[in-house]
Design goal:
Alkaline Phosphatase, subunit A; nine-stranded mixed sheet; two-stranded antiparallel sheet; 13 strands
């Protein structure tokens, strides 16, 4: 394929829960400070490692057009489709996955890839809770599922890194960072920052350091030039919007998780009314492709519109796996990309 470079092609997929990829233009939670999101924080140089990946990668302004909770968003990522029922749910207050022989749901890309090319695909999954299940990111041979909100840095350093170092032939690995999803009902921005989990801002800076560790590891161990490093998220969160106001926020600088309605509007807290401008905070997901394997012609480029269901087919495209789904590989839309430095957000 034209998008593949080098003798071996690897995909490392990092999924960061509740991390907004972008935000509606002009919204601030403090003077000069937007709600936490990857695009604006990189632009302001708050997050130099995310910025490095954007400047040397393809940033997609991506959206979750389905249900913006984690059970749905994770399955959209895993299967490349919105119609992916059944999803994890709750029964009598306990997690429940209503998968049956009569209603098995679609097979996730990772499992399909191993069935399609068992001798070629060397897959692993480092996650928490339920996302190890068939239909999500189940992998044969090396699935690791940890307890809920297991620390992101420990998922990476204690589990993913030892595997990647030892199993040098890996080429399809999923690593899940869950903690940002728990940093909610808190300020988006504040000073001082007593703890990484004290605000979205503080945790975003912590995440940027962790992303720096990922980049450093791939380069030190000579994986970088062969790797597509793909960052994605399942949903964003509400702030400075009509849904945040509905659940009790009294100002823009308060993060309010990701309840419905997802199609919220920017809220004027001084006048205590909607501005009428679309926000859709929770729908603004992250989709960023970087790494040394990415073709030079796509580095420092922007795709103005993509969807969460485009992640799986993009990975399938990279690894030459004929995975059928609803989404489309962004590499099939290379002609729609624009230069990062000349890009103007509407």
């Amino acid at each position: 394929m034209s998008v593949i470079s080098g003798d071996m092609t690897r995909v490392l997929l990092l999924v960061i829960d509740q991390l907004a990829g972008h935000w509606v233009k002009g919204v601030e939670v403090a003077k000069g400070i937007p709600p936490v999101n990857v695009w604006d924080y990189a632009r302001l140089n708050f997050t130099p490692n995310f910025r490095h990946l954007i400047e040397n990668g393809l940033f997609c302004f991506a959206w979750n057009k389905g249900t913006c909770d984690t059970p749905h968003g994770m399955k959209y990522l895993a299967t490349g489709r919105y119609n992916a029922d059944p999803y994890w749910t709750s029964r009598a207050g306990w997690p429940y996955y209503p998968k049956t022989p009569e209603n098995p749901g679609p097979m996730g890309l990772f499992e399909f890839a191993q069935h399609y090319a068992p001798d070629r695909i060397k897959a692993a999954c480092f996650t928490t809770d339920h996302w190890i299940a068939p239909g999500y990111f189940y992998t044969v041979g090396y699935p690791v599922a940890l307890s809920a909100y297991y620390p992101d840095e420990k998922v990476w350093h204690d589990f993913a890194v030892p595997y990647l170092k030892k199993m040098k032939e890996w080429n399809l690995v999923y690593v899940y960072f869950p903690v940002m999803d728990s940093v909610s009902f808190c300020p988006s921005y504040q000073k001082p920052m007593p703890h990484p989990r004290s605000s979205k801002h503080a945790y975003m800076l912590f995440l940027d350091e962790l992303i720096g560790d990922v980049i450093d590891f791939l380069k030190r161990h000579n994986f970088w030039e062969e790797t597509y490093l793909i960052l994605a998220s399942d949903h964003g969160y509400h702030a400075a919007c009509s849904t945040a106001r509905k659940v009790g926020a009294t100002g823009p600088n308060w993060c309010c998780d990701h309840p419905a309605p997802y199609d919220c509007e920017v809220w004027d807290f001084e006048a205590d009314k909607s501005t009428g401008r679309y926000s859709g905070c929770t729908r603004r997901v992250l989709f960023l492709i970087s790494g040394g394997a990415l073709d030079e012609s796509l580095r420092g480029r922007v795709l103005k519109y993509a969807e969460i269901i485009d992640v799986a087919p993009t990975i399938a495209d990279v690894l030459d796996i004929p995975y059928e789904c609803e989404g489309t590989s962004v590499f099939k839309r290379k002609g729609e990309t624009v230069d990062l430095h000349g890009f103007k957000l509407d």
